[in-house]
Amino acid sequence: MTATPTIAVVGSGPIGSTYARLLLEALPDARVIMFEAGPQVTERPGESVRNITDPDEKARAREKSQGPQAGSFRESLGIPAGAIVEGMFTARQGTHLLDFGGPGSAHAQAFPAAAAATNVGGQGAHWTCAIPRPAFSEKLPFIADDEWEDLVSTAEDLLHKQSAAFSDSPVGAAIRTLLDREFGAELPEGYGVSTLPVAGDPQPDGTMRWAGADTVLGPLIEPGTDTAARFELRDLTLVRRIEHDGTTVRGLVVEDLRTREQSFVEADAVVVAADAFRSPQLLWASGIRPAPLGRYLTEHHVVISTVALDAERMSALVSDEELEAELARRATNPADPVAAVNRIPFSEPDHPYSAQIMYAETPPFPLPADHPAAANRWGYVNMGFGTRKFPRVEDGATFSDDELDYRGMPNFTIDYALTERENAEIAEATERLRRAGQALGTFIAEPRLLPNGSSLHFMGTMRAGTDPATSVADPYSRVWGFENLVVGGNGLIPTANTMNPTLTSIAIAVRGARHLADQLRAAQREGESVG
Ligand code: FAD
């Protein structure tokens, strides 16, 4: 190994960024090169597009992130224009469906709403920034509690966690009171109705600057810092293959999507953090094909609804002056629709659901002027109850050697089905959602289960574990059998998880990065390769 180790990171989302930051801070001589298939869409690399105030600029940044569904931007992203046909389904802004329809699309009829983002910052440039901690059986069984506490706190620091965001909102507080009256007696101590922790920095005017990969990268993108001098981010650069001899990785074959030139980049270690489908796809393309790769796919299913807040119940808890002050504050930032975020966290045995309750002063869809809840002065809540999907080897992606996707990578098909056990929990969560809605006001959208893939939180496809027969990565996120190949992202989460997974995945990455740093340091001392 060279005196100055080079670590190659695939993917510029929050997880790749965690590795880049921690490795450069731990290893004063190391260099990190980060490869990202998508373009840089914000001035500051990886910033949340939600922070862009100009609506046209925001729309442009989102469209450029949509890879094969990026409309007129497509050719500038290295995607042949003629090859793509837009699908029937549309994805959330800033993302593109895996099964978008047309040549080169993945096959995901059983998981139709699954989507990804292809841009610097990954999905982390478009996310809602909710960062609850996993609890009870959601946690990783092979990490002891005291170490977990340290890992998850470090992850919260990297994301600039705010546990009391919007806690000064009187409407948010009244929503908590009403929900607590309905559910409080059934919930265990410490797992009651509360504010939802989010990632970002509150601004003096009461708005939030939402966190993205830029927040995680921190000093690496501040000109003049020592770590910035050792960090290189190459956007519009697709990693096509990991070069290895079966136990040791030597580097990456990358393609510059602007020039179509391919080159080999040598590396002492490689971190693949290219999301829950495209990371296993890259491993498969590189001939790294452990049996659990792509399998054990889970997400949390979501039952959602929208409720108009009840004037009588709300006005008993919030004065007119308080409401006016809140609405005036909100009017200063009409571009950000979220005013307060509450939750009922997952707990066992009696509440195995994660509820997210978002207050907004406008409904998420237009209501006819004569609708009884149109222009509701008290506003609305959008609620979702997340439920478990228990890991099964039958669910997951199967990669093809014969069929290529729109990027010329092995295409894949997703198999997925809900079982009786999951349907029963979804039915129970729907009942609780009804209770929550009735406690708060009047439904303007009845509870409904979103199509498979809608959570955008895809887990299990590269699970970390202690048994190579059922996991892709060891407890330190190294691909089994390789010393210097590390994987990261939601795909590593092996448990049935009901909530937003990014914090958990960053905590797992903190563990992986610390271990890799120790290994590289030891190899440096011995003047050897880590592999
Ligand atoms: P990503 O952010 O997906 O980044 C992976 C990157 O790898 C992509 O940019 C991709 O282009 C790149 N890549 C893929 N293949 C290659 C290749 N071969 N070569 C080079 N680059 C490649 N999570 C939460 O916890 N809380 C939330 O509130 C939340 N809300 C969300 C809301 C929305 C609208 C969306 C879209 C997501 C949300 N998420 C949320 C999910 C969250 O954004 C992801 O969990 C997180 O971004 C995952 O980080 P990552 O780094 O693993 O992957």
Fraction of residues in helices? 10-25%
Bound molecules: flavin-adenine dinucleotide
**What would you report as the Rg, rounded to the nearest angstrom?**
23 Å
How many strand elements? 21
Which band does the percent of strand residues land in?
15-25%
Alpha-beta content class: alpha+beta
CATH fold-level name of the domain at 163-210 and 301-387 and 417-451 = Cholesterol Oxidase, domain 2
3D shape? globular
Q: How far do the termini sit from each other?
A: 9 Å
Give structural notes.
This protein is of the alpha+beta class. The protein has a domain at 163-210 and 301-387 and 417-451: 2-Layer Sandwich (Cholesterol Oxidase, domain 2), CATH 3.30.410. Helix content is 25%, strand content 21%. It is built from 11 helices and 21 strands. The strands form 6 sheets. The chain has a 6-stranded antiparallel sheet with strand order 6-15-16-17-14-20. A 5-stranded parallel sheet has the order 9-2-1-13-21. A hairpin with a 5-residue loop joins β18 and β19 (410-415). Bound molecules: flavin-adenine dinucleotide (FAD).
Main attributes?
21 strands, 5-stranded parallel beta sheet, Cholesterol Oxidase, domain 2, 11 helices, 531 residues, single chain, 25% helix, alpha+beta, binds flavin-adenine dinucleotide, 6-stranded antiparallel beta sheet
